[in-house]
Amino acid sequence: MSQLTQQEIHQLAMQEVGDYLEAEGYEFLAVNSQIKRTPQFVCVKEKKLFFIVVQGTLYPKAPKKFDADLIQKVKDHAEKNNAQLFLAGVGFAHAENYDYPLTKKDPYAVNFHGLEAIQ
Fold it and tell me: What is 6-118's CATH number, 3.40.50.150, 2.170.120.30, 3.30.70.1350, 3.40.1350.10?
């Protein structure tokens, strides 16, 4: 069985973040599941607009390490739209041993601690 592709990792991250947003009461206006297109989620909560950028990574890469140029672009876009920007970094690893490769059939551990606001 082959290791997860970047698109599959991204889809897992999107699912984790989408479930989190739904549980927190966000209403989805738009969802973009393409890796290079940001923001991935455009949401409303309490009449406020939110842009959420999702990044999925595999251990040992840190899930909260985002590309600064990309974040600045999205931040500028959020400011033009009077939206608050959040980052959602989601890390994955093989559940039995973080050093094992992760495939579709393996159990996995998730490293996601909610949204990080960008001012």
Answer: 3.40.1350.10
Q: What is the DSSP string of 30-43?
A: EE---TTSS-SEEE
Beta strand segments in the chain, E:
27-31, 41-45, 48-58, 84-94, 108-111, 116-118
Residue for token pair 């973009």: 32
| Bridge partners (DSSP) listed for residue 31 | 41
Please state the pTM of the whole predicted model. Answer: 0.93
| Chain center to CA of 16 | 8
Residue pLDDT, tens place only, 13-66: 999 999 999 999 999 999 999 888 899 999 999 999 999 999 999 999 999 999
Joined tokens for residue 58: 């595999």
Report the alpha-carbon distance of residue 112 to residue 17 in Å, rounded. Answer: 8
